[in-house]
Amino acid sequence: MSLKKLIFIGLATLNITITLAQASKNNSDLWNNVRFGGSIGLGFTNNGFNGSIAPSAIYQFNDKFASGASLSFNYAKFDNDKLLAYGGSVLSLYNPLPQIQLSAEFEQLRINRTITTPTIDIEDNYWLPAFFIGAGYSNRNVTFGLRYDVLYDDTKSIYGNALMPFVRVYF
Q: How much is the pTM?
């Protein structure tokens, strides 16, 4: 599916959701339980750059459980090698105690990378699934923790390791 189709479907879904929310007075409670957030990342090395943005929204069912979706966009350039990754994820958050947050997240990214060699540029385009299980310390709006990708493939993953730290922010 092309990026234009994904954007169109996303905007159409958002438009329908907003229209239905305005048509129903009972939906006012729905929007009071939606929290928005996400992450922004920047990285610099001697000959490289990495930038990412991942807006997210979750529905807070109660004090213990929330679920939602996220979009993701990553760009990296190291020497002459380039990587573009975009996609989305669905996630669930569970707080057995107010300070402890457990999470599960399924992410699907489209990877487009170009690796430059002395004789040829190699282009590699593929879909990459990831399934993260995580745990962290939470203060309601911000969570610091670690997550582990159980589907990690060191030949295809854009992440350097299956175990990685995270910071989640929701308002």
A: 0.77
